[in-house]
Amino acid sequence: IPWRSREVRMGVFPMGVDATALARASAHADVEEQTRKWRSDGTVRLLLGVDRLDYTKGILRRLLAFERLLERVPELREHVRLVQVAVPSREDVQAYQTFREHAEALIGRINGAFATPSWVPVHWMYRGVSHEELLALYRAADVMLVTPLRDGMNLVAKEFCAARVDDDGVLVLSEFAGAASELAEALMVNPFDVEQTAATYYRALTMPEDERRDRMHALRQRIATHDAERWATRFLDALDSITAGGHGCAPTAPDVLAALAARIRAAPTVRVVLDYDGTLVPFALSPELARPDAPLGTLLTELAARPGCEVHLVSGRGRDNLARWFGRLPIGLHAEHGLWSRPRSDIWVGGPTVDMSWRAAVDPILEDFTARTPGSLIEEKEASVAWHYRAADPEFGQRQARELHAHLTELLSSLPVRIVPGDRVIEIRPHGAHKGTVVATIRDAAPAGTLLVVLGDDHTDGDMFRAVGEDDIAIQVGSPGHGAPYCLTDVAAARAFLQDLLRE
Questions:
Q1: What is the per-residue pLDDT across 437-491, written as a single tens digit (0 to 9) for each?
Q2: CB-based contacts of 350-357 (< 8 A; 24+ apart in sequence)
Q3: How do 377-380 and 451-456 pair as beta strands?
Q4: Coil, strand or helix: which one is 87?
Q5: Which residues are catalytic?
Q6: Which of 11, 257, 267, 430 is the most exposed place for a label (fewest CB within 10 A)?
């Protein structure tokens, strides 16, 4: 995800449990003894819920489904019991006190309607439990109920499977738990659907032994393979791949940058070629808002005043903006990616060299996408046009940009134009107008032995980086990955590097 002057990478790293330690502990003699106590009445099947007392965990819906099960299947009465462990949570918060009251009232209703002198359908445990007691409950349960209304991962489901060293038991899992994307062999439920959830409880209780064992064996294998150690290793490996330059280049070390600056200062003739947006100034929501500040003008003027040094500003912006902002500075200006150039004079040279009739087809499409994408806008130029979506919703803007790019690619495939995606912008411009041609022109006009220094930030500046020679210097600003061997983190770092060139 492009974010300001850097790139954020996202990954999916489902957290695991220490499956080996859980399996070892669940086989301990103390756990075995407690398991036998929970199973002392061999005629009663055990359903288990273990949750923090929280409204997101689906405890009320779970109880309603259990009540419906007893109503719909009378023969299960006195042969099934729900043990609900509710670990106290936020007891000083009124909303949680009220939630507990609702849960206990519902349990009272169920027990009042179905209990007999020898059987209570719901066993409520409003307390914490020891590790050994929790493992014994996991081992004793015929069916584990993990049915949150919304949850991030829910490791209880994985702990239950890891503890079942007997390869038995059934996991009923809410489709709204993160673990549901991994544990396909569980029986999935929508806890809001009481009827369907009750039917799934019945299916779990009546599932043949061979199917139970096949499902649990597969779950245990997956959990043992994707355990907590592997989760941590994958996470750290992903971080290491970024810092080691696995996705482009890492920010260049300060001592290397200092050596580059010293080399530039020592060169008898230097041509410094600079992009504008994202390199010298941060991106703004609207192109008109990214005006240069006074310190930037001073920096460019002082840099151009160094003996043997020329400064060139190469931008995708129109020539009117560049002339208004930088026309008084002693630097070369190159607008619309080099379509127009003004090398240290008041006269612009260049201009469109191709048929511009393609605009008639493109303009209505851009207007339509702008109307359908709040926060987007069209930037009109003499020979090109750009669609900006920096102020749009990031996710929606990206989707719209992909659709627009695909649509324009098909529409303009036979015409001499380029569709160039940039940082929250898509630009359509004539073939042959790119920043690499500007760099080549500057290099050819310079004296032999001139050092070329290029700074840019995005895809359009890759043309400049590819145009430099082996002995020249190309520096990426912000998100890496466009072909420059050196990287600066952001606009502030770019300005600091240029300031360093002014030292004696």
A1: 899 999 999 999 999 999 998 877 888 999 998 999 999 998 666 678 999 989 9
A2: 351/382, 351/383, 352/382, 352/383, 352/430, 353/430, 353/432, 354/416, 354/417, 354/430, 354/431, 354/432, 355/416, 356/383, 356/430
A3: unpaired
A4: strand
A5: 275
A6: 11
